Amino acid sequence: MTVEEFVEQLRANGIELTPTQLEQFETYYQLLVEWNEKINLTAITDKKEVYLKHFYDCLMPLWLMPLDHYEIQLCDVGAGAGFPSIPLKIVRPELKVTIVDSLNKRITFLTHLAETLGLQEVTCVHGRAEEVGQDKQYRGQFDLVTARAVAALNVLCEFCLPLVKKGGNFMALKAQKSEEELQDARNAIAVLGAKLDRQATGILPIEESERNIILIKKTKETPNKYPRRAGKPAKQPII
């Protein structure tokens, strides 16, 4: 996807990028490639591929799963190189973003990235999701928690739902068919105080691959025992 195609495809979905936003995406790409030589951020470095499989992909929730209100407190768990939170923040600067990642080198990159792009109200937190989810500073504080390509859904729910405030949402971005994962996660969703709200499917242009977004609504407080200690959700998922 060329930059021109990126702009046109977003326009077709109701998003008109400003010259500043286009410049931010270009700088993001340059920094991603530059830092990727020092630390492992992404296997995708070709410009057209980054614009399609990272930038455009991360923005698909804006029309597939539009959010009803602004000034959203968003937490991105396991963001890696900043996906999906930084592309969303560029296009929706009113978002207040907290990024959680377990690798300090990535946090260093993300902090530098946010500063270089001139993004306000972006906080980068070094820590495992299991530990951050038990920290009173973050637990139950967010309107929306996102995760993209991090883990199976039943594991993700334990990472993310403790961070969501009652009435807020957890949004999982999945590439492949998500029905099987959703079936496996149904008990975890209920145990953690939530319910399936809705799903949406879209097609990534050019390569025409499927993208699935799952929105889970937090209906009551997550029991205090969750998330369990680091490593346990992945080794012994709630089933």
Protein architecture, described:
By secondary structure, the chain is of the alpha/beta class. It is 40% helix and 23% strand. The chain contains 10 helices and 7 strands. It has helices at 3-12, 19-36, 47-59, 61-64, 85-91, 104-117, 129-132, 153-160, 179-191, 232-235; strands at residues 73-77, 96-101, 122-126, 142-148, 164-174, 194-204, 209-218. A 7-stranded mixed beta sheet has the order 3-2-1-4-5-7-6, sandwiched between helices. A hairpin with a 4-residue loop joins strand 6 (194-204) and strand 7 (209-218). Helix 2 (19-36) packs antiparallel against helix 6. The longest helix has 18 residues, at 19-36. The N and C termini lie far apart (40 Å). The model has no long low-confidence stretch (mean pLDDT 94).
Number of strands: 7
**Radius of gyration over all CA atoms, rounded:** 17 Å
Oligomer: single chain
- What spatial order of strands do you see in the largest sheet? 3-2-1-4-5-7-6
Task: Output the number of helix runs.
Answer: 10
Spatial separation of the terminal alpha carbons: 40 Å
Strand content: 15-25%
Mean pLDDT: 94
Largest sheet: 7 strands, mixed
Which class best fits the helix and strand makeup?
alpha/beta
Q: Which stretches of 5+ consecutive residues score pLDDT under 50?
A: none
Helix content: 25-40%
Shape: globular
Strand-and-helix sequence, N→C? HHHHEHEHEHEHEHEEH
